[in-house]
Amino acid sequence: MLRELLRSVLDSVRDLLPIVVVVGFFQVAVLHEPIPNLGDMVAGFLMVVAGLTLFLRGLEMGLFPIGEAMAYGFVARGSLPWLMIFSFLLGFGTTVAEPALIAIADEAAKAAAHGAVIATDPDALRKYALHLRLTVALSVGAAVVLGVIRILKGWPIHWFIIAGYIAVAIMTSFAPPWIIGIAYDSGGVTTSTVTVPLLTALGIGLAQTIRGRNPMIDGFGLIAFASLTPMVFVMAFGMLH
Amino acid sequence: MEILSGLAKILLGNVLDVAPIAATLFGFQVFILRQPIPHPRRTLLGFLYVLVGLALFLEGLEAALFPLGKLMASQLTAPSFLYGSEAPPGVIRWRDYLWVYAFGAAIGFATTVAEPALIAVAMKAASVSGGTITAWGLRIAVAIGVAIGISLGTFRIVTGTPLHWFIIVGYVVVVIQTYFAPRVIVPLAYDSGGVTTSCVTVPLVAALGLGLSSTIPGRSPLLDGFGLIAFASLFPMMTVMGYAQLGQWQARRERRRRSDRAE
Hints:
The complex is a heterodimer of chains A (241) and B (263). Chain A is globular. Chain A is mostly helical and 241 residues long. The model of chain A has no long low-confidence stretch (mean pLDDT 82). The longest helix of chain A is centred in the N-terminal third of the chain and has 40 residues, at 38-77. Helices cover 85% and strands 0% of the residues of chain A. The termini of chain A are far apart. In chain A, helix 2 runs parallel beside helix 8 (195-209), helix 5 packs across helix 10 (222-240) and helix 7 packs antiparallel against helix 10 (222-240). By secondary structure, chain B is mostly helical. In chain B, 80% of the residues lie in helices and 0% in strands. Chain B has helices spanning 2-32, 40-76, 79-83, 98-113, 116-129, 135-159, 163-180, 185-195, 201-215, 221-224, 228-262. In chain B, helix 5 crosses helix 6 (135-159) and helix 6 (135-159) runs parallel beside helix 9 (201-215). Chain B is flat, with a radius of gyration of 23 Å. Chains A and B meet through helix 1, helix 2, helix 3, helix 4 and helix 6 of A and helix 1, helix 2, helix 4, helix 5 and helix 7 of B.
């Protein structure tokens, strides 16, 4: 138990170490400037390490085993409609819980308030951030459903990706300029700590269960879908706003 | 005391963040699959960890990674750093900001090479490819892609070029490459874009972009601040497919040379 915890701490440290090394190098070799509030920052780093460790440990103890077993087992027993509902909720739920998205949505709300797109009171900020996250979550849910249908049918992935790109290009010309940056970013942000392991398990589980599918070719790709649809949905969100 | 009440408030918010996925998994387990939840006590403890961990992580981001990204942005673009004692020119010259691009590339490369999710995927892909690609080569390819992406993204913020030009041109390149790349690598290449940006890198990179756009004269955080993560997810697709194409090309040349010798 203690050893597992130690290993998780080391994992989190390894995530942060490159950042510390690169920033440290630039501070010492290029900028020659002291970091103000160094104490606060070190405390914050320790909180990030502790938080990330606990978060990942908790996921491994509780959610991941059930989620993965379920993703693997679902095709064998569940009917198609239930599989679709499960896929949607899995995409939606993992995205709402994604820490990176929580952080970025708050920053996006601040930038929007700063640019006078929304009001500056905390309520408006919170509402905007929440709506943004729900939009992304809806889009990831839709992406997973679409991706699962693709795996079931064995359709080639690049047709969907190319169609998605065309949709992004068309939406870009209609969407207000202030939403474009955050829309493009939201695709990369959503596919992170919580979403990737569960979606990968779902994709590979499906591809393994269905005869004639190659896990390498058909199993991957859910993540790609999940990083594409948020762009379209978030731009639509900006147009409706 | 203030920190504690703040933490409690965040904790409460996190319950709502985690609720949908928890409800989905447990709901399906109990009501649809009609199976008991395995190790209920361990699972519950895991939940507690998730909630406390998320609260600490988000607080830590506010205290460390966001300020660090913004600090680096402001220090690297400070007139005293850029021009020394000379008077700053009235216009923005992209050549003055070389250290910004270097920093973006270094952060992108370093964080990606060490990314655990990528290591697992790379080993799996190498074993499937039959020797045309190696796990290390793949990791380096993705890391170079992220480095180019973030570096070019900071260049875009400095020059204020619209984001969608870069992205749409990038897509066209990806589509063309898809036709020539080995079929096995394509889904993996598409996924590698999304996988690489971990939840530690994302806040730092986002803060860098927002910081740059608020310190460089004439840029606005709302219009120019975002987009670095999009770049970081786009370019690995190109470098991974490019790397697989290189491996394929080398293998083909090797084969041709061998058959020449045989004749």
